[in-house]
Design brief:
The chain is α+β, with helices and mostly antiparallel strands. Helices cover 31% and strands 26% of the residues. The protein has eleven helices and 20 strands. The strands form four sheets. Strands 12-13-14-15-11-16-20-19-18-17 form a ten-stranded antiparallel sheet, with helices on both faces. It is globular. About 3% of the residues have low confidence.
């Protein structure tokens, strides 16, 4: 029996302003799409429904959940992104009029439900989560921040940190015994989400910020699409996910959006960052639209299957059924007169298509590196010991005393490798196509280990 026969999922992502005035909350729509895609990778597209913004209404939610419930599954995941305070209050409060979430849960009555809550405006604290479980509305709740301060989103990550951590957990989580449906240990899931969210916080912002995800469960386990690392179709060896990355620098003066009268920043400050991102934003938007056009032509993607997120705080994205692309621009900390651009493409629907070169024409400039997390625990110290005894295979090796990471250059090649417990990164001296990077990854790394 497949996971799709045992579990369904509904995503409610509403980034609209609470009143008539105001702007939509950044990344809510794209996060909803990305979360739905991650669920579909594990459960199958027919087992997942995603409602965005205007579609998050009571009647649509009720009709959608009712249709999925007819599949006869024993468990469900319901995710709420954006404006969750009033939505969760719809369940815990005394309002006589049902909202989208209450309508969804009513149609899923009798199923073991995990509720994922990622607030962007307002908050849902640990006590609210416990009330939902204690009252029997759901089997388990995972909230983005148990302190009730609201969750963080980041241009570096390209969306909400909690959503990004949850998506990774769909692929990496190992199923637990003791349930009649796919499930994971609640304590272990909370530990994983907290670790990943706060790692992304450190990478995205200055020190001092912290977010505390909380997982509350009635029975100690959480209904969950636990794929045990197999959801991505596999790329061989020990590695289960593939991403391609590049970092490039370009003089700010070389952009046509910069006039002769503009002053080039002499230091990286909040105002200079806003200036650079504001002026370069249209160029980034043009590049994103160009990529979207190539995707429509090459992959025959329909309008509703393609999401283009214009730059917000210098970060934008293109999400399609085959993969997700994100870009971020800002002043270079080491050279404020230059623009630093970071690109990443990941979440591939069919990794085999990378090897076939199907995506090479979509990214004519290529990428500098291919990155993959190892399956299971990886001892960097053991890797270092093995490399130091490898003789002529390694030209140069660098690592700190605590053996938390290691970087090496392979003898007789133009490739370098960086290994940490979180990822293995293979980098070329110049940009290469995705298919060539992946081929070298398998040749230089997978086959050698």
């Amino acid at each position: 029996m497949s996971l799709a026969d045992e579990l369904i999922a509904v995503v409610l992502a509403d980034g609209r302003p609470a009143g008539r005035k105001g702007s939509r909350t950044p990344f809510v729509a794209s996060d909803g799409e990305a979360l739905g895609k991650a669920l579909a990778e594990v459960l199958g597209k027919d087992a997942v429904a995603v409602l965005i913004d205007e579609r998050v209404d009571t009647s649509t939610a009720r009709r959608t959940a009712r249709g999925l419930a007819r599949r006869g599954c024993g468990a469900a995941v319901v995710a709420v992104v954006g404006r969750p305070a009033e939505t969760v209050g719809d369940v815990t409060g005394t309002s006589r009029r049902a909202g989208p979430l209450r309508a969804t849960l009513a149609e899923l009555d009798g199923l073991a439900v995990t509720l994922l809550v990622d607030p962007r405006e307002g908050s849902v604290d640990a006590s609210s989560a416990e009330e939902l479980v204690r009252g029997g509305a759901v089997e388990a709740v995972a909230v983005a921040d148990s302190d009730g301060d609201g969750s963080q989103f980041s241009g570096v990550v390209g969306g909400g940190l909690f959503v990004a951590a949850v998506r990774s957990a769909f692929v990496a989580s190992e199923p637990t015994a003791g349930a009649f449906f796919p499930a994971v240990d609640a304590g272990r899931l909370e530990e994983t989400l907290s670790r990943d969210v706060n790692r992304m916080l450190r990478e995205s912002f200055a020190a001092g910020r912290r977010q505390r995800p909380r997982v509350v469960s009635a029975a100690g386990f959480v209904p969950w699409p636990a794929a045990g690392g197999a959801a991505n179709g596999g790329t061989g060896g020990r590695f289960v996910e593939i991403a391609f990355e590049s970092v490039s620098r370009r003089p700010l003066r070389s952009y046509r959006q910069i006039s002769k009268a503009d002053r080039v920043p002499a230091a990286v400050t909040a105002s200079s960052t806003r200036f650079v991102q504001g002026r370069i934003g249209p160029a980034v938007a043009d590049d994103l639209e160009a990529l979207a056009g190539r995707i429509r032509k090459a992959l025959a993607v329909r309008r509703g299957e393609l999401t283009v997120q214009p730059p917000v705080d210098g970060a934008g994205s293109v999400i399609c059924p085959d993969f997700e692309y994100r870009v971020e621009v800002g002043p270079d900390p080491d050279a404020p007169a230059d623009v630093l651009t970071r690109e990443r493409v990941d979440r591939f629907e069919t990794p085999a298509a990378i090897q076939e070169g199907r995506y090479d024409t979509l990214f004519p400039d290529g990428f500098e590196a291919v990155v993959s997390p190892p399956r299971g625990a990886l001892s960097v110290a053991a890797v270092i010991d093995r490399l130091e005894s490898a003789g002529g295979e390694v030209r140069r090796i660098d690592y700190p005393s605590d053996a938390s990471r290691v970087r090496l250059e392979l003898a007789g090649t133009v490739w370098s490798v960086e290994v940490s417990p979180e990822a293995v990164r293979l980098e070329a001296a110049s940009r290469r196509s995705p298919s060539e990077l992946l081929a070298k990854f398998h040749t230089l790394l997978t086959d050698r280990h």
